Amino acid sequence: MNKLELISALQTEAKISKPEAAKVVQVLFDSMTDAMARGERVEIRGLCSFFVKNYKSYAGRNPKTGEKVVIKPKKLPFFKSGKELKDRVNS
Known about the structure:
- With 91 residues, this protein is of the alpha+beta class.
- Helix content is 43%, strand content 30%.
- It folds into two domains: 1-40; 49-83, no CATH class.
- The chain contains three helices and five strands; from the N terminus they run H-H-E-E-E-E-E-H.
- It has a three-stranded antiparallel sheet.
- Helix 1 (3-14) packs across helix 2.
- The model has no long low-confidence stretch (mean pLDDT 95).
């Protein structure tokens, strides 16, 4: 399912117009993104949680040249599925 399919499903289920459904989906995604940008965890009970992992700086190698390079600290978003989602997928 992609974003357009999600908008169509919301439009059908909630019996609202397509622009209204698109706005709801966009507000949801923007709110989740903003919370994660602030370092907050986003949890949707029974479905999943999103969180940001912090990685420290470390020494790596350029695979082409073998030269040592310093990898800067970074943050990456992660997804963890909830128990109910795991159960539904495995049934």
